[in-house]
Write a structure and sequence with these properties.
By secondary structure, the protein is mostly helical. The chain has helices at 2-26, 31-57, 59-67, 72-79, 84-103, 108-129. It is globular, with a radius of gyration of 26 Å. The termini are far apart.
C-alpha cells in the first residue's frame, strides 16, 4: 500500500511540474508584440513631447502660466525630462483640453485652470523623478 501511495504521489508531483511550463507559456507575451510596443512607444514619445511643447507655447498657455507665477520656458524644458507614461498621459489631457476649447466646451477660465494644472503636473513629475 505504501509503494502505491508513493507512486501516486510521485505521479502527482511529476504531472504538476510537467504542467507548470504549459501554464507559464500561456502568460508569456510573444516577442513580436513586445517589439511592436517598444517601437510604438519610441515613435510616440517624440510626438508627445512635440504636442505638449506646442500646447504650452500657445499664447493662452503662456498667459495662464504667467498668471499662476509659473515660467512657461521652465515647463517647456521640463517636458523633455518626463518618462514615456507621463508624456503620454499629459499629451492626451492636453489634446482633450484643446478639443474642448475648439468645441466651445471650456470657458477661458476653465482653460486657464486646465493649463495651470497640467503645467504643475509637469513640474511635479520632474521633481519627483529627480
Amino acid at each position: 500500500m505504501k509503494a502505491t501511495q508513493m507512486i501516486a504521489a510521485g505521479l502527482v508531483v511529476a504531472l504538476s511540474f510537467a504542467a507548470a511550463p504549459l501554464r507559464a507559456a500561456e502568460h508569456v507575451v510573444p516577442s513580436a508584440d513586445l517589439r511592436q510596443q517598444l517601437t510604438d512607444r519610441e515613435e510616440s514619445s517624440p510626438q508627445n513631447v512635440e504636442r505638449l511643447s506646442e500646447f504650452f507655447q500657445s499664447p493662452a498657455a503662456t498667459q495662464a502660466l504667467a498668471k499662476a507665477g509659473m515660467d512657461a520656458a521652465q515647463v517647456g524644458n521640463a517636458i523633455a525630462a518626463l518618462d514615456d507614461d507621463s508624456l503620454e498621459n499629459l499629451a492626451s489631457r492636453a489634446g482633450a483640453a484643446q478639443r474642448d476649447v475648439a468645441a466651445g466646451a471650456l470657458t477661458n477660465q476653465q482653460l486657464t485652470y486646465v493649463i495651470i494644472a497640467l503645467g504643475t503636473a509637469v513640474l511635479i513629475l520632474v521633481i519627483v523623478a529627480a
